[in-house]
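Quick one, tokens below:
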């Protein structure tokens, strides 16, 4: 069962996904072909019958040329200059064990944002493409260990390590540790 807040975000997210598809002039079939996501899943996400996974949102963001945080910020409250910890929007992909806190949400006048991320033990998220080609990311592990694969290069990061990269192809985030991992993701649009 989803909380009222999660259900409201899913409803606004579904409406925004439908609006983006319309703005781009895509039918469900065309969007399915471009994203690699089935028509039925796209339709269910747009009607908020399902809560989209991080992988599904990443595929759609790649089609629309925006980051996941940009997309989510469009359905979250307008960011204030100071965002208190209690007011930072949290989004969760229960299927993969990924929790995302928008510490410093995207803003039209800024290119960067900060995201606190948590992966549950055993979580494994693979993105087949970047949401925005050439996206700059800095991953700083705050607690635990994280395995990040960028294209074919694997990186094992532990507490205090930082990986800097530009995303041009597939990436994978995996938490093999028993205690889970918490990391800060700094995202800078090209």
């Amino acid at each position: 069962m989803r909380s009222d807040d999660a259900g409201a975000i899913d409803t606004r997210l579904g409406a925004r996904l439908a609006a983006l598809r319309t703005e781009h002039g895509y039918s469900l079939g065309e969007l399915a072909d471009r994203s690699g996501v089935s028509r039925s899943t796209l339709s269910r996400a747009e009607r908020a019958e399902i809560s989209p996974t991080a992988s599904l949102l990443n595929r759609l963001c790649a089609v629309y040329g925006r980051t996941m945080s940009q997309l989510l910020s469009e359905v979250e409250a307008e960011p204030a200059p100071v965002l208190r910890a209690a007011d930072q929007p949290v989004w969760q992909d229960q299927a993969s064990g990924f929790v995302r806190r928008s510490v410093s949400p995207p803003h039209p006048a800024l290119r960067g944002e900060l995201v606190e991320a948590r992966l549950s033990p055993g979580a494994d998220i693979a993105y087949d493409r970047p949401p925005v080609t050439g996206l700059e990311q800095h991953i700083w592990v705050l607690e635990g260990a994280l395995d990040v694969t960028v294209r074919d290069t694997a990186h094992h990061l532990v507490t205090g390590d930082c990986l800097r990269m530009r995303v041009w192809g597939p990436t994978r985030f995996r938490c093999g540790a028993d205690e889970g991992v918490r990391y800060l993701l700094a995202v800078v649009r090209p």
